[in-house]
């Protein structure tokens, strides 16, 4: 939320409101000053639902974008699919939040796909990792999970995670890496989903087979969608460059504001 010195607030607004709502539900934990926030995912869903209702947002769940409606070279609406069938929604403007630039790409505007993309990750909530650390303090996960001496070892990468607030031993874990997968393509996305879950299963098998503690860690739930870091890029009217980020350049709108 703030700069590295904790002197200037960079992120606020809706993010601040969501954090406040989570805190009121005892679903938020703050660590490292104000640098890191841990929350319970289910409570985030509750909060987001309530905010949609509060602000009168006409939301359509279980609805998928299919194609843009083009008039005079601009997007005047979108074709969507939902459980009722196919329909058109007319709009004054469209914000492409597909993360793969699907709206922009299908409208015929310029995009590019890097030759190499950052690997996606399948996350999971796992129970028992804290107990594992107590049973085997000399075997940190960040070392053994990628150790090639174990047949179940994961591809090169690193593992990180966060304890869920209010739980005794539940932890969100991000340790899988599906290298070479461009999830802007359906076949590769499907293969990446399967491979990400296979790696999670291998992680559990490694701990169970080679470190038989009193109660091995168990997967509680896997993410509903693999976490995609990079696919298609839009050729916009303006690009944020490296020096813009390093110098903290401010634009007239909210573009380029971040602390990550």
Q: Kindly estimate the percentage of residues that lie in beta strands according to DSSP.
A: 15-25%
* Helix/strand class: alpha+beta
Mean pLDDT: 91
Quaternary state of this entry equals single chain
Q: H/E series, N to C?
A: HEEHEEEHEEHHEEHEEH
What would the principal axes of the Cα set say about the shape?
globular
Give me the number of helical elements.
7
Gap between N and C termini, in Å? Answer: 10 Å
Number of domains: 3
The residue ranges in which pLDDT falls below 50 over 5 or more consecutive positions are none
Name the helicity range. Answer: 25-40%
Strand order of the main beta sheet, please?
Answer: 8-9-7-10
The beta-strand count equals: 11
* Major sheet: 4 strands, antiparallel
Q: Radius of gyration in whole Å, from Cα? A: 21 Å
Please describe the topology of this protein.
Layout: H1 13-24, E1 28-31, E2 36-39, H2 41-54, E3 64-71, E4 74-82, E5 85-90, H3 102-106, E6 111-112, E7 123-127, H4 129-135, H5 141-144, E8 160-163, E9 170-174, H6 186-210, E10 218-222, E11 233-234, H7 242-247
Antiparallel strand pairs: 1-2, 3-4, 4-5, 6-11, 7-9, 7-10, 8-9
Short description:
The protein is an alpha+beta fold. The protein has helices spanning 13-24, 41-54, 102-106, 129-135, 141-144, 186-210, 242-247; strands at residues 28-31, 36-39, 64-71, 74-82, 85-90, 111-112, 123-127, 160-163, 170-174, 218-222, 233-234.
What report would you give on this structure?
The chain is α+β, with helices and mostly antiparallel strands and 260 residues long. It has helices at 13-24, 41-54, 102-106, 129-135, 141-144, 186-210, 242-247, and strands at residues 28-31, 36-39, 64-71, 74-82, 85-90, 111-112, 123-127, 160-163, 170-174, 218-222, 233-234. A hairpin with a 4-residue loop joins β1 (28-31) and β2. The longest helix has 25 residues, at 186-210. The model has no long low-confidence stretch (mean pLDDT 91).
